[in-house]
Amino acid sequence: DKFWLVIFDECHHIPARTFRKISMNMLSPYRLALSATPMRRDKNESLIFKLVGKIVYATSYSKLVKMGFLAPMVYRRILVPMPPDKMLLYQQLSIEAKKTKDPIKKRTILNKMINLCQENPNKIIVIKEILNTHQDKKAFIFVSSIKYANAIARSLREHIPIEALTSELSRREQEQIIKKFKIGIIRALVIIKKAEEGVDIGDASLAIIAGGSKQPRETIQRIGRVLRPGENKLAWIYEIVSKNTIEESIATKR
Predict the structure, then answer these.
(1) Which of 11, 71, 89, 144 satisfies CB 3.0 to 4.6 Å to 211 for a cystine?
(2) At 194, is the pLDDT very low, low, confident or very high (cuts 50, 70, 90)?
């Protein structure tokens, strides 16, 4: 009750349990909400509008590029086959999922299939090729798990200065890695959700999405990481998807 104005940055989080409690108890008569992605998969954006008000201003990516606030981008999707042993396991899980009638068990099996696709070892070969193609660019590599982030960093460390930025590291270690990335000692950062929103980890002009999210919002947040404007800057975004799998279907739908 001490403030006249409340500003909700990244307001798509308002419907989350903790933020919802705070938002509903704020007595500020004036409210401003900001988001690149206000629409939610669970349709709970209605709570945002009830607590803050209707959308009063919206703009588009193309307009922001013309105004110089965002960099133009090139987007490429690369389909990568699964190794034979991983594909065999994937097909076994697929058969099991089709036979299962229990929705909870089915969802568990589908998540295992998605994880197999997201952590496709053949993606690491493609990541290396992309980094070699863009040797003059700093890169963010987005993945779905700490295990896979560390595997990528280990595999590529001999070829380029690269580190995995994960919650396994202490805060001091994370800050040191971010500092080295910002000044160019480290050329590529492998990151998961922890660093995808609300954390300043520096600028890059190359994004490699190796573990795609089911939510368009998270994909937009990832792409936004490389859209900071710069002189003659062109942002490159590569999405690496396991071929002939559920991951390809998810990517197409998204």
Answers:
(1) 144
(2) low
- Measured distance CA(165)–CA(189) in Å, rounded: 7
Q: Indicate the pTM of the whole model.
A: 0.84
Residue range 171-187, pLDDT digits in tens: 899 999 999 999 999 99
CA distance 204 to 165: 15
Structure tokens of 94? Answer: 């697929």
List Cβ neighbours of 183 (8 Å cut-off, separation of 6 or more): none
- Burial label for 44, CB within 10 Å (0-12, 13-18, 19+), is middle
* Residue 58 in tokens: 């919206």
User: Where does the pLDDT of residue 198 fall: very low under 50, low under 70, confident under 90, or very high at 90 and above?
Assistant: low
192 is written with which tokens? 């998961």
* Of 99, 184, 88, 98, the residue nearest 136 (C-alpha): 184
| C-beta separation of 32 from 7 below 8 A | yes
Residue 147 clears pLDDT 70, i.e. is over it: yes
